[in-house]
Amino acid sequence: MREAPWPPEFEKLLRANLPLLDADAPLDPGLNLADHGLDSLATVGLLMDLEELLGVTIPDELLEQTSFQDPLAVWQLMASAAGDGAAPA
Amino acid sequence: MAVRPDQPPVPAFRADSSPERLADELLLALARPRLTQEVCARVRDVLGTHGAGLDWGRFVDLAGRHGVLPLVGRNLIRHRLAQSDEGRPLAPYRWIYSYAYEGNRRRNQALADEYAKVLRAVDDAGIAYAIRKGQPLVDTVYGDPGARRVGDLDLLLRRDTLARVADALTDLGYAQGRQSQNGERIEPFDRRTQLFWRTKLTNVALPFVKLSHRDDVELFIIDPCTSLFQVSSGVEADVGDFLDRRVRRTVYGEPSFVMDRTDQLIDACVQLHVEATTLYYIEIGKDLTLLKFLELAELLRAADEDVAEEFRRRVDVYDCAGSVAWALHHTALLYPDAVPAALADGFPVADAATLDEYGAFDGQVHRWESDFTTRLFDPARNKDVTARSNVPGPRAAV
Question: PROSITE patterns annotated for this entry (chain A) (predicted)?
Fold first, then answer.
């Protein structure tokens, strides 16, 4: 199985915000997050939790460029915010 | 389009109106940029006959809530409606009205001095902008710096210029935050508010504020806006189109830019609909403001056939006919002479049932228990609204 491009902690946090994703279903990088229960308020909460987890603050310009539509987009956002590579704090 | 009379019809006060209803009718009569001799005579007659029994507390309260206290104050004083020909007081506490108008004029001068600096700074930074609402309306509709309370400076901008705007405003002492409890500091918005506004309310940015150190101005507020349309409306409009059409105008004594007349009309219609139906505004009692209907009516009165034709075209381009229909329908209820039938007929209300709905922009549709004219002057109209806005942060522009 292809290794996820993100650390387990990221996936755990993301899954906690996807109430419509089965626990044993893979978190596909292209999974539509809105379709699996991530609404606008939850997105904000998720970003706050990810900032705290990874010890980063997402710059405004990156926020505006991101669609948050799938896990890969969210991970790439956090990775960009962290610079060389995001890692749990 | 038929030429509309410059002068609205004389208000018809009902002989059997309750003291509360009389206050409402008086407010409608006096909240006008210009009063004709006929209107003045009618008001003086009504006040002479029924003034003692009128609910003046309600009148002042409603005038304040609807943003028209300086205007009605000016009209009462300027046309000497607060006293009879014999000098008998017809309206108690005449000084409330004169203070409201004169104080507002001084306040607006303070805002003008500050916002002129902002316009210079934005211009010096080479940032393309157009002023929305506010002072351009004061100049166009009233021609009187004291008649209309101004709050913030609304700037329509390209989103990719926001960082430069932030730099220019920071240099002038502005910050994105809220006033502290003691009023002496600006505290940054919490992270949740910042993230919500930056990811969900992409048509605006969090306001930039600066302490004024004046009793009559809480804060100087700059409201950046990057689209006239709510994200949830689904309307996709290139702000560059609006900026390309902007016109030069001297505002606050500074060579500046405002939206062209047609775009001002669109903005007024869309904003009226948004405010009337969005939980954010309903919660703070700013959903129905007579001032906004009055100003749309005045913009319509000033629109010639060319503007009307271009207005129809652009509404079609931006697919905002629903908001326009709502705004024209309700403005016509208050100012029937201001909304030409030819224009209104071009924007029929698709479903009359939607006229009393709210919450659509919030993704949760509800229905008012009472109709528009009942709600307009009911300060407690939101008491039965249980739905809540999920927008955190300042209760300013959305």
Answer: CARRIER
